[in-house]
Design a protein that fits this description.
The protein is an alpha+beta fold and 971 residues long. It has five domains: 3-355, TIM Barrel, CATH 3.20.20; 367-433 and 576-693, Rossmann fold, CATH 3.40.50; 439-574, Trefoil (Acidic Fibroblast Growth Factor, subunit A); 725-837, Sandwich (Immunoglobulin-like); 850-968, Jelly Rolls, CATH 2.60.120.260. Helices cover 21% and strands 27% of the residues. The chain is built from 20 helices and 48 strands. Helix 7 packs parallel to helix 8 (205-221) and helix 16 (576-584) packs parallel to helix 17 (615-627). The protein is globular.
Amino acid sequence: MSRARRSLLVPLIAALLLAPLPAHAQELPFRDPDLPRAARIDDLLGRLTVDEKVSLLHQYQPAIPRLGIGAFKTGTEALHGVAWLGEATVFPQALGLANTWNPELVEQVGAVTGREARGFHARNPAFNGLNLWAPVVNLLRDPRWGRNEEGYSEDPYLTGRISTAFGRGIQGDHPDYLQAAPTLKHYVAYNVEDDRITVDSIVPPRILKDYDEAAFKPAVSANAATGVMASYNLVNGRPTHVGPELDDVVRSWTDEDLMIVGDAGGASNVFGSQRYYATRPEAHAASIRAGLDSFTENDRDSAQTTTAIKTALSQGLITLADVEDAVRHVLSIRFRLGEFDPAGRNPYAAITPEVIDAPEHRQLAREVAAEQVVLLRNDADTLPLSTADTKKVAVVGQLADTLYEDWYSGTMPYRITPVKGLAERAEVTSSEGVDRIRLKDLATGRYVTASTASTGAALTATEASPGGTSGLDVFDWGEGTVTLRTAANGRTVSLGDGRSLVNNAVQPTGWFVQQQFKLVAQPDGSHVLEYAGNDVTQSWFGPNKYVVVGADGRLTLGAASVGDATKFGREVVRSGVDSAVAAAKGADAAVVVVGSMPFVNGREDDDRKTTVLPAGQRAVIDAVRKANPRTIVVLESSYPYAGDWDTADLPAILWTTHAGQETGHAIADVLFGDHNPGARLTQTWYRSDADLPDKLRYDISKSGHTYQYFRGKPLYPFGYGLSYTSFRYSKMRVDRAVVDASGEVKVRVDVTNTGDRAGTEVVQLYSHQKKSRVQQPVKQLRAFERVELRPGETRTVELTVRAADLAFWDVTREKRVVESAPHELAVGPLTRTIGVRGETIPPRDLGKATQAQNFDDYSGVTLVDTTKERGTAVASTAPGQWISFEDVDLGRAARSLTARVANPDAPTTVEVRLGGPTGRLVGTLAVPTTADKYSWTTVSSPLRGATGRQDVYLVFTGKARIDNLTVEGSS
C-alpha cells in the first residue's frame, strides 16, 4: 500500500471505530459490564459466525461492523518503552532494567510503557494495539546470544521478580481493567539465533522444570502477564508452536485466561522449514490443539491462516469447539482491556497521546539510566569526579558522541550523548578514536569519494586527487567487521540498489544490516573491501560479496573471490588513537566510551562469535591510559565482555547497557557522584570465551553454564557491583535451625554503611544444598533486598526463604520434592547452615513403566518426540552412548527388562549393565527395525544376576529410540 493511500485510510478506519454503535448492538448482553466476563464472552461467541470466529485467530483481527466490534491487533513491541510507532520514551535495554535489582522502579517503567501504549492507541486504535509483546523472560544462559539485551538475567528467580514488576506496571492497578496486556516471550528454551527456526533445544526434564520454565511461571502465576508467545525453536524434537505444554503447563499456572500467540511466521515454520507437518492445515490444527490462540502470519494478510483453519475444520483435524476455545482466550483479553464497555467505565480509555514523552517520563528515563550503571572497578577512589578538580574532561571513543537504538527500541525524542551530558559539567574535548582513511583504486590511481547530499549517493573512484569528500571513518566492531562513515555527509555506507555502495544510512539498522564490511589486508599491502552484511548468505544475494570499481567508477559488489576484487590502497588521513590521545592529554580526566553496536554485534537472527572487546577499541583504551593516568572506561554494550582488557592498569570502569535518550546524563550523574552506583550484574562475566561451553548445550548442570554451575573464576561474578561507599555485614542469624518442607526461614543480617557517602546495597541471599540425590547448583539466589543507608547507619535486613522454594524436580517420581538435607545460606561473606526436614527420595522403582527421559545421567544421547502430539523419548545417535538410572531397587531377582522402542535404522541392541557403562552385562535388548521413528514396539530381555540396589545403565550399540522401560520381578 502506498504511503499516501495509507495516510488516508488510517484516519478513516479510526473514525469508523469511534463511530456510534448500532442501536441494537448497544443493548446486547456482551456489552453489559455488570455481567460476569464468562457470560459476556459466551454471549458474544454465540453471535459470531464460523468465519468471524476464525478471523479472530489472526494477529490482525478484522472489525465486525454488524456487532459494532472494531479491529484489534495483537503485538505492540514494548521491551523498554513502546517501539516502532514513532517517538516515545526510550528506557535502558531490558538487561539494564534488571541491572537495577529494583522491582519497584521497573514497575514504574512498565507503567509508563503501558500508559504510552494507551496514548498511541488513542492516536490510532486500529493499528496501535494494546496487546504488548513484552517482557522477554528467556534466561541469559549464554552471553553470545544475539538477543541478550532483550532478557533480564541468567537467573530464573531474579528474572521472575523483574518480569512480574514490569508486567504489573504495564497492566496497571485497576481491579477490573487492563491498561495494556503484557505477553511473555518466548516459550521456551530459546537462546540461540543461528538457525533458530530449525535448532532443537535439548533439555532434560529437571532443567526444563527448574530452570527454563521457572523463568516464565512467576509472572503468569502472579497474574502479571496475560499470555506467552511460543518460540521459534524446537524443544526435544518438537516445535514449540505445537508443544502440548502451552495448554498443559503454562495454563496450569493461573486461573486467569491467557492468550497464547505465535511468533512471526512461527506457526508456518511447522510445515515449512521445520517440516514437522506436511501441510498448513495440519500444522495450524496442531497448533490450535496444543493451545495456540493467535497466529502471527503474513503481516496483515490473514487469508492463508483463516483458509488453513477452515480447511482443518472441514477435514476434521480440529473441531469448532477447539476454535471457540481459542477465541474465548482472545476475547477475554479484549474484554479486560475494556473494549466493549460504555464510555467512562474504563479509566485507561481516557488516556490521550499527550502522555507520550511526558516530562515526568523523561525524568524517569534519566533516573533509570543512572540506576542501571554498574561500577566494575574503582581503584584508589578514582570516582566520583569532583567539579572542583575536574574542569576539563576528555570524552573519547566510538560511542562518545552517539546513542544507538536496537531492533526493539522506540524512536528517541532526543539524544543526550556522553559528550553532551559531560559538557554540562566541565569543558569537554572529544574524539571518536577512529581512523579516517582514504581508499585509492590501485589499478587507476583514482580515489573513492562520496556525495555531500544528505540522502547520499553511490560511492565512486573517479578523483585523481584526494579531497574532503574522500574521507572514510572506520568503526571497528570486532571480528574484522567495520562500518564506514563518509566525511562528505556524515552518513554510513550501505548496500544500495544494484548492489552499489551508497552513503545514505544514519546508523547501521534494518533486518538485514547492510552497513557491515571488512577491509581485508592482502599480502602485497593492498586491501580489498568485502561486504559482511547479514544477508550475505541469502540465495537471492548471489555469489558476489567483494567490491569492484566499474567502468563508470561506481563501487559495487561484483566479485565472488578476492582475486577478482578491486585492490585498494589504504591511506590514513588521521589516526584514531592519535586523535584520542591528543584529546586526553592535558585533561583533568579522560573518559573512554567503548562498546557494541546493537545492530552489528549480535541481534535477532544473529549470534555473536565472541564476547571479546574489539581490538581497535582496546587500542584506544591502552593509548589514552598511557596519556592520562586518570582514565575511566565506560563500557556500553548489550552483553558482558570477556577477554584480557580488564588486566589493563585502569583506575575505574563503568558498564552501562544502551540506556536510551538519557544515557549521557546518566553517565555524568554517576561519574560526578550525583548518583552513587547501586546496580549489580545479572549475568556472569567470563574471563574468556573458552570458559563458555557449546551454546547448543541447554543442560546447564552438565555444561557448567551460569553462576549456578560454573566452577571457574569469572571476570566478574553474578550479583557483582561496587559503590562509592563500603558496606559491612554482621550478625547473621536465622530464626530456626530446622525447618519443615511447608515452613519458612527468616534470615536477619545487619548491614552497615562504613563509608562517608550515602549508598545503596543489594543484599543477596543464596543457598546451597549440601547433600542430595542429584547434582545441586553451586549456589542459587533465593531472595534480595535493596537497602539505602546513610554514612555510619546500620540496618537489620530480613529475608525470607520458603522451604518449598528449595524444591527441585524429582525425575524418579515426576514431581517436585523438598529433600531432607542441610542447606548453607549465604548473605555477603556470612553463612549459616540450616536443616530442612523434607523427604528422602526412595530407591528407584523400575517395576512400573518409567519414561526413558527421566534418566539420572547420560552420555551422547539426545531427546526426541515420542509422537507429534506429545511425549519425549531418548534417542541414540552413535554406538557407546548411554543413559543411567541410579539407585534402582532390583529386589532379590529382577527377571526381565521390557522397553518400548522405535528404530527406523538397522537392527541393533541395547545392553543392560550394572554399575557403569562398561559394568557387568546382565541383559541385551534386541531392537528390530520399525516402519518409522513413530512406530513403537515392545521388546524384552531376560536379566541375569540383577539383584539389590544398583545403578542400571542402558548402553546403545547403534541408533535406536526408547520411550519407556519396565523391570519385571524387581520386588
